[in-house]
Structures are given as structure tokens and as C-alpha cells.
Amino acid sequence: MPTESPTAELGASASAFTLPATDGRTYTLESLKGANGLVIVFMCNHCPYVKAAMPNLIRDARALTEIGINVAGINSNDATVYTDDAFDRMIAVAKEWNLPFPYLHDETQDVAREYGAVCTPECFGFDRDLRLKYRGRIDASRKEALPDARRDLFEAMRAIAEHGEAPEVQYPALGCSIKWKP
């Protein structure tokens, strides 16, 4: 049963964090920020919704970087139960997909809780001042990629970079629930 993200409290400030990434570095919220904003995507390795969205996410991450918006992926799943989401598997997935953005490990799940993330893939789009302007989906793809789907995340973030506001209509993310530790 898929999980849908709730509506967002737009305008909220991004919460600071420090997390290790699959490239061997450690990133902070500030170090990830682009000149025009930041997209944080809660994602994981095993979710069929994430797997289907990956080509479009990678395409959009590259395009967003060109307009000064950085992207970071965060995996917060309990890897003791979902072993495909273990850090060593994250490293393999990042290499396999040649991810053009840092893929971070939220082992304590504190970051997912702080952001109120509920599913994968779920996107949080912040403006240049790290204020939340978008929360929702990458596009209308579900367990299969829709190559001609409207690029909801990209279009919203482009509007944010250009004039500071995302479209009023934002579609919730839909995917696998985050796998919480007991």
C-alpha cells in the first residue's frame, strides 16, 4: 500500500543536519545549498517507486544544478530490517546510477523525523534562503516511469529560482513508507 505525503507548511526553514554520504564525504545542510536553492529527496534503494523515478530524478537533478539548485538524496530507512538499504548497498546504487548528487545516510532517522518525511521518493524544495517552497513528487510516475510526465519538481524549482515562489498547486509524493526503527 503506497504512502502519500501530507501537505506542507510552506515557508518553514530547513533544519540543519550533518550526514555521511556514499562518496566518503560528510555534508551539512549549508554545504549542500546551491546559489538558488536546494532539493532534498528522501529516497532509498529497494523502493519500486524510487527505482522507477531514478532516470527522471537524475535528469532533473542535472538540469537543476545548471540553474543553481543543488540536489541531495537521503536514505533514512531501517537497514537492519531492509538490508538492501544498508550503507554499503547505498554506495553500490550511487555508483550503478552514477548519481549526480550526494546520497546521504540518515542512520538515526533524526533528519527524516525533523523534516516530517513519510515516503520515498519525497521531495522538499527550498529557495536560496532555505525556506520550504515545494513538497511533493518528482512527476506523475509511480512504479513505472512516465517519460512524458510533466516535470513537477523541476518546474516548481525553476519558478522558485526565477521569482521566489513555486506554483500554488503541488502534488503529493506517493511511494513506499519510510521504514522506521522500532
From TrEMBL:
Give one Pfam hit by family name.
AhpC-TSA
Protein's name in the database: Thiol-disulfide oxidoreductase
Taxonomically, which superkingdom?
A: Bacteria
Q: Which organism is it from?
A: Caballeronia calidae
Q: What is the lineage of its organism?
A: Bacteria, Pseudomonadati, Pseudomonadota, Betaproteobacteria, Burkholderiales
**Which chain positions lie within coiled-coil regions?**
none
What GO terms are given for molecular function? antioxidant activity; oxidoreductase activity
Classification via InterPro entries? AhpC/TSA (IPR000866), PRX-like1 (IPR047262), Thioredoxin-like_sf (IPR036249), Thioredoxin_domain (IPR013766)
**Boundaries of every Thioredoxin domain copy:** 8-165
